[in-house]
Amino acid sequence: MSKDIFAQESKILSEAKTHISDEPIRSEIYAELVSNYGKLLRTTKKIIKLSDKNEDKLNELKSEAVESSAKLQSISSQLSKFLSPQLYDSIFSGSRAGTRATRRKKLTVFFSDLCGFTDFVESVESEDVTHVLNLYLETMTNIALNYGATIDKYIGDGIMLFFGDPESKGIKEDALSCVKMAMEMQRGLEELSDEWSQYGLREPLKMRIGIDTGFATVGNFGSESRLDYTAIGSAVNRASRLESAAENGTIYISEETYSLIEEYIEATALPPLNLKGIGDFNARKVVGEVNSDAITVSVGTRNFSLVPEQMSAEELYKMQSSLESALKQLNKYSEEQGS
User: Is the pTM of this model over 0.90?
Assistant: First the structure.
């Protein structure tokens, strides 16, 4: 069979040209040409009709594909809100399968708790509780993601996260990122105090944090129908217990974590802590970065920190003018109180 779908039509055209060159065209030849032309016309119509149907079908399939793609993109976008970015990327890139698989890795684990929030919940409307909690979690989450943390879970107003899986910058770098992140979280919490006051908070909420570095088993745990990506092990337990033991507004870290970051972070040794289920445990309270240029201003129970080298000339000028003005007013007030 010829591959040329118009082979028959080409043959008819060739025969017609031959007949035209002959002496006069006989009626039977003319009739045959008309008949063949009719067949050609019908064939052409069928081809066009079939082409139109195919085009309609292709357009229909294209429309369905676009619609399906939009639905998948919407589902993917919604799903991304329930997974840490690193885990989401590893699943959808195909580098991590949705199976019950774990591995043992050295992680730096972080736990935090919002002190006094339970009492606040009992005294205000649920809408206000929702707004305050979501604002807090949104602020802390943005800070955590900026430092590359893997967010494990929210536990009410508590947060568990870790560094070292599925991505790692190195054990030392992970530990340093975690502690720097914790310090920025404390500063971020202070900045939320003014907004929270409109909801009846008489005292600023404070956060206590516990951090430990050690081996943990991390991966997918659960059943074939429901998996949870998390980390378990002694490092997780120690970080959780350190958070529970920490004073309000402080960051407690283990000696293991401190040994990795001591050239960058200043932390004072604490008396041995009696941690539940662990016993006596040596830990440190974070003070700040070593040789940090940060300036801290204490106002009552609140501390405000700023780093001049991270500010523009205009911001430095405005800050200096503001502080000078405030100092003059304080001096005037003190003189009036003393007279």
Answer: no
